[in-house]
Specification:
The protein has 212 residues and is α+β, with helices and mostly antiparallel strands. It contains five helices and eight strands, in the order βαββαββαββαβα. Helix 1 runs antiparallel to helix 2, helix 2 runs antiparallel to helix 4 and helix 3 packs antiparallel against helix 4. Strands 2-3-1-4-8-5-7-6 form an eight-stranded antiparallel beta sheet. 28% of the residues lie in helices and 26% in strands.
């Protein structure tokens, strides 16, 4: 018998597979610049490549590094006591970014990230976009992945509500980001290009008027 050579596992760097995020932070206070700069300086950017633009900051790196950095920046700004909003978009497998040969499944396996609780309360409006085309072994059924992500959110311990075009998540900032990223990561195991978008609000003066 000849030697059986195992199939070469698919590997790619985060940059090669287009794994990254865009973050925009807004602080509703006169000294907003100082609050934002302090939050950025205090956050651990290990493993992250940063490119700050006019509208947002682009982050490139592995999933655990991206989530840690975003969590620390947003939590740091929130601890100022000011009303803070953050807009974050995570993307993986973007056709304009990919320089590697894709695996037969069309996606890239990654472990779900667990974040350290922040003690900071956050409310998020979240949407997941599995941009599938049915190639490889994955069938084109984007609602399958969206419904699975919502059910996972409901089981997480967060307060979860369906809203127009989004799912509302409420709880510790770390768990909110963890749930958002989990849907994105799991969908990305079978779908080449997956994006997820969330707008987060912290210390909002209108929170009580919208509480359920």
């Amino acid at each position: 018998m000849g030697t059986i050579i195992p199939e070469t596992p698919f590997t790619a760097t985060p940059a090669e597979f287009g794994i990254g995020a865009r973050l925009t932070l807004a602080v509703m206070r006169d000294d907003y610049a100082a609050v934002i700069l302090d939050a950025l300086q205090q956050a651990d950017s290990t493993g992250i490549a940063l490119q700050t633009g006019v509208v947002s900051t682009y982050l490139s790196g592995a999933e655990p590094d991206l989530l840690r950095y975003v969590s620390q920046v947003v939590a740091g700004a929130s601890r100022s006591g000011a009303h803070v909003t953050a807009t974050v978009q995570f993307s993986r497998g973007c056709p304009g970014e990919v320089t590697c040969t894709l695996p037969p499944t069309g996606g890239l396996f990654a472990e779900v990230v667990n974040l350290t609780p922040t003690g900071v309360h956050a409310v998020a409006e979240w949407a997941l976009y599995p941009l599938d085309d049915g190639t490889g072994s994955a069938s084109a059924d984007h609602m399958r992945d969206i419904y699975a992500a919502i059910e996972s959110a409901k089981a997480s311990g967060l307060t979860v509500h369906s809203e127009h075009f989004v799912t509302r998540l409420e709880g510790d900032l770390a768990l909110v980001l963890q749930v958002i990223a989990a849907g994105w990561i799991v969908a990305g195991r079978t779908v080449q290009h997956v994006a997820t978008h969330a707008t987060l609000s912290l210390n909002s003066p209108s929170l009580n008027s919208h509480a359920s």
